[in-house]
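Morning!

As promised:
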Amino acid sequence: MFIEKDLVAAAATPLVLGILAEGESYGYAIIKRVNELSRGEMQWTDGMLYPLLHRLERAGHVSATWRTGDNGRRRKHYAITDAGRAVLAERAAQWSVVADALQQVWRSAQLPPAAAPGWV
Amino acid sequence: MTVDAHLESRIADWRGYVADHRVIAPADIDEMEDHLREQISDLMSVGLTDGEAFLVAVGRMGGVDELSREFAQEHSDRLWKQLVLSRTDRGENSGRTGELAVVLGLALGAGLAVRAGFEWLSESALLRNAAVLILPFLATYFAWKRTMPARTIAALAVPFILAAVVLNVFPFEPGGATEIVAAIHAPVVLWFAVGFAYTGGDRRSHRRRMDFVRFTGEWAVYLALLALGGGVLTGLTAGAFDALGIDLEPFLEQWIIPFGPAGAVIVAAWLVEAKQQVVENIAPVLTRVFTPITILMLVALFVAVVASHSVVDVDRGLLILMDLILVLVLGLLLYSISARDPYAPPNVFDLLQIVLIVAALAVDVLMLAAMAGRIAEFGFTANKVTALGLNLVLMVDLLWAAKLGISFQRGRSGFAAVERWQTRYLPVYAVWAMFAVVAIPPLFRFV
């Protein structure tokens, strides 16, 4: 299924914050988790994650630390901050309103089954 | 070549290619390279060859042009270093063609304007009009450099024309306080107009505003260096000619004094634009040196005022001095905010900065309390209103900056909040300066 770029972009911030709320993580692991959660349906240009993480860092929603791994390579780990949790809670509330509204309208509109996959 | 070495060389190629896009910093490339390597090893573990895995991993990483655009948006401070703002987002460092000629032409133009002022204006009118004579040339430089559209250029001309009209139509009492107030604030107003040109008309962008603050700081440093060098050179030349029995003074007065400062204003701006990296390393050092010294000065002042019990006798001169100190503190604060790496966690220096603000506010409150008594006794004058108004505007800014600084120190908010407050507050200064030029003289009957 192709998911529209704008939709992916809109979901990116709460998704990343949510993943970091599960525990500290780093870029590649975050992408893997996104794939896992969306069963590979949310295709993401991997590189785009980093500007997003830096934006969140600048806003103080996540904090970052460089650590050296067992293989001697440096890796930047991200953890959510209290401010980030507050933002996440706010976003979660917004998204559940949206999701709830969509669920309701779909139940009452009764989409034809063929239309569903093509709907973007 | 072994498989590993082959892969390593391809990763190195990729790295080099990304590094060409200079908005992506080495640390960011490290981060993405780590990602790339892990992706490759995961793909190889499910059976892809190293070549295939490399291609897939690089493909998933995304197009480098697109990525660097995204990075540029997030890191406009880096972009600024690369001087590629209004041109391409490739890392080319070449200025516009013929830039030097334009700069020299504008510097000459500014010098001629001031020279004409020397010739036709009275001394007080010249001082009043100095900014009107020089700054349009600086604004023109940026309008040219940012290739502004005609309509924006027309908008840019408006404040200069209005300032010229107001400063010369108002019937100022010669040497009166309102004339001085207007003369001091007109350059501030017009500096904001220059800022409008600097941002290429994009005045709403907070990033661009911060860039302008940074520019102002660097410009001041360059101007000071030029003034120092120019002063020494002029002094030496005059001395040498004097020893030869030739009086250089008429030449100095007629040509060096009008052309030197006016040209320096333009050349300093060009230097900031063209030779950014040179001062960039000095900026954080300067703020780090002067912040502690300023704190010491403020504490000494505080103690002196309290100890001498002369609070009752403070005159308006002291209030103006206090304003200057607050302006200095604000300048130091703005400059260090603009020079600071927004990603660094709070450190001792940030704490020092809060101490600086609090010390300045403490001294200020002391002075204000004293002044309130004076004003109650002798009433308002143009000077007092200006000094008090500026004091108020500065205090609000610094109080809030202190609050945000503390919450950043405690990890409650990011540095972005501190930055954002200052860029949002900037227009207040513009409005205040405009008020001082346009409204205060008529309010006090131009005395």
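Chain A is about 60% helix and 15% strand.

Hope this helps with the figure draft.
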